[in-house]
Every structure is written in structure tokens, then in C-alpha cells.
Amino acid sequence: DAGHYDNGGYEHYLLKEISEQPDTVARTLRGRIDDRFHIAHLGGLNMDARETRSFRRVKIIGCGSAYYSGQMGAQLIEELARIPADAEPASEFRYRSPVVEPDTLYVAISQSGETYDTLAAVQELKRKGGRVLGIVNTVGSAIARETDGGIYLHAGPEVSVASTKAFTSTAVAFALLALHLGRVRDLSPADGRRICEGLRRLPEQIKEILTLEDRIKELAKKYADSPGMMFVGRVRGYPVAREGAQKLKEISYVHAEAYPASELKHGPLALISPELPTVAIVPDDELLDKNLTTLGEIRARHGRILMVGHRTSEAADDCIVVPKNEVELDPILLTIPLQLFAYHAAVALERDVDRPRNLAKSVTVE
Ligand code: AGP
């Protein structure tokens, strides 16, 4: 209930929650990074080293934005811990009679801890003997109680219906979990150190991104009257694109579609025209050249492009340049300008930013 919390002088809770992220990310990290051994301390997992080493797969479940943060988490776990990992909507998982395996680590994500589809999936997993961790914001919530252990986000209450700070904190919690799983398997001390140092840089870098707000506001106004927008990203950029599209449609009601950049030519390229601008997530990673080629393909079809990445490019009409971290952690930072973009698009279109139509903050019914 928004009435209980101070909006801190911000016009909307959403902007307050976006702006809090340097602090909320720092809180998710607090006390959990060990700079001596370059490991993560996650006491709440209730797992000894032997059990931690025993998992051969990780399956992540959550709904909506929680699911997209889980997709980011699956990539972090595969990259850092080299354990096959994937994410699935909890709402689908619970209905499809999943095979529950003893050597799979299940991770349920929920800001509220009360989402019924996620809770029902956790209960089904437990019934079948699955080992389930929770990545949850609300202490003592149903999903926190039902899981065998987990990581609390400590991001503080999230009031606005659209999730922002819980999303970034969940991704940070996954980076810690991936570091933890990796360092008891074969992640080197040097890579552990690189990730620890990268994690420590995040709050300051988020602050830097927040200083881009005026520019992002201008861009949001420029693009907000489009009938729809395409969001594309490759591999690490894809969950960023999905969450960016989700934010835009939830609060501005502008139709937004997210696609892997690599899939454009297999169908949705037919949609590209000056009326359907593209937000392209283009990190400076090993896929940079491929992504720039995709921008060229969009441009050749007269599509307008807003590029979000670590450099500017002539292939794009507009660019938002964010600070660079380690490649594995960059998706967390790339998400933040898209939150501001959706927020300012919604404001420009005079939407009910904190309480978008047809949505509830937590969906506690089937
Ligand atoms: C996020 O912006 C959405 N409002 C929604 O997708 C949300 O993330 C989802 O319903 C899951 O909520 P939870 O994290 O509280 O379980």
C-alpha cells in the first residue's frame, strides 16, 4: 500500500525507486563480498560446500520481470560457474508436469514473495523432492518461508507496480550466487577477483547513469509517440531488451516487442519501418560486430535506431552511452537507462505511472 511509504519528494514512486538503485544495489551486496578469497558469503543458502558442488543444472523460475531477471541470472551462472542453467516462467512451469531432478538446483524469484504462480511452482517442486532456493525481496513472505534457503535482496519496499530496483538487485544476487557456485568449482581466483571488483563498482556507475536522465527524457519524448517499438539484444543483451520492452508496455502502453537481434532476419525484420523504431542493446563484448551489422540491416529498411551501449555509432540515430563494467555484469547497468526511458515515455503520454491499468503489484490469485 503506497500510503505507508514516503515518496521522498519524487513525483512518482517509480522515479524514487529508480533513483534509489545506487543504494539498493549496495545493500544487496553488503557483507557478501570477500575480497581476500574473492568469494561470496551467502549464509542464507543453508548449503555446505559438498552440496554446492553437487548440482549439475540450475533451473530458475519467476513471473514477468522476475522471470527476465532470472534469464539474466541463468547467463551469469553458466558463464561464471559453468553449470547449465535456464529460466522459465513459473506460471508455465507449474502447469507442465516438469521432471524434477535431485541434482538440479531450483531458484524461485519474487519481489513480493507472494506471487501465486511462483508459490504454486515452489510447492510442486517441494512435493517432488526438489531443492529450492528463493531470491526474494520481502522478508518472511510466503515464498521465502516455503523455500529451503535463499538470498534476500534488502532493496526495501517496492511500491510502484513496475519493478525496477528489485530487478537490478535480483540480477546482483544472481551474480553473487554465480560467483559462489563458480568459486567452489572452477572459477579462478583472478576471475573471482575481477567479478568482486566489478560488483563493487556498480553503485557508483549507476549514479553516473542516473545523471543521464535529462537526455533520456528528451529521447523518450522523441520516441514516445511511435505506435510501437522493437527491442533487440544478443545473448547478454537479450534479457535487457526483454525487460526494457516490458517496462515500456507496462507503464506507457506503447506496444513493445523484444527479440534476440539474431532472430530479426527470421521474421520480425518484416515489421521494420520508420514507424517502428528499434531500441538496440549493444554492449562492448565479443558480439559487438555482429550487433553493429544488425543495426545496418535495420537502417537499410529505414528503421530508426536508439542504441544503448558503451559507445556511439553512426549506424544509430541516437545513442545512450553507459559506463562499462565486466562483460558479465554489464547487463545490470544497461537495464537502467531503459527504466528511465519507459518512465519518461509514460510521463510524456500522461499515464498513471505508479498504477498502470489492468495490473496489480503482486498477483496473488491464479
Ligand atoms: C514487473 O514490472 C511486473 N509488474 C511483474 O511482471 C512482476 O515482476 C511479476 O508479477 C512478479 O512479481 P513478484 O516479483 O512480486 O513475484
From TrEMBL:
Active-site residues annotated for this sequence: 361 (for fru-6p isomerization activity)
UniProt name for this protein: Glutamine--fructose-6-phosphate aminotransferase [isomerizing]
Q: Which gene encodes it?
A: glmS
Instruction: Give yes or no: UniProt keyword Cytoplasm.
Output: yes
Q: Which residues of the full protein are shown?
A: 240 to 605 of 605
Q: Which key words are in the record?
A: Aminotransferase, Cytoplasm, Glutamine amidotransferase, Repeat, Transferase
Q: Which reaction does it catalyse?
A: D-fructose 6-phosphate + L-glutamine = D-glucosamine 6-phosphate + L-glutamate
Q: Kindly list the places in or outside the cell where this protein is found, as annotated in its UniProt entry.
A: Cytoplasm
Quaternary structure note: Homodimer.
**Do the record's keywords include Glycoprotein?**
no
The EC number(s) attached to this protein equal 2.6.1.16
Residues annotated as coiled-coil are: none
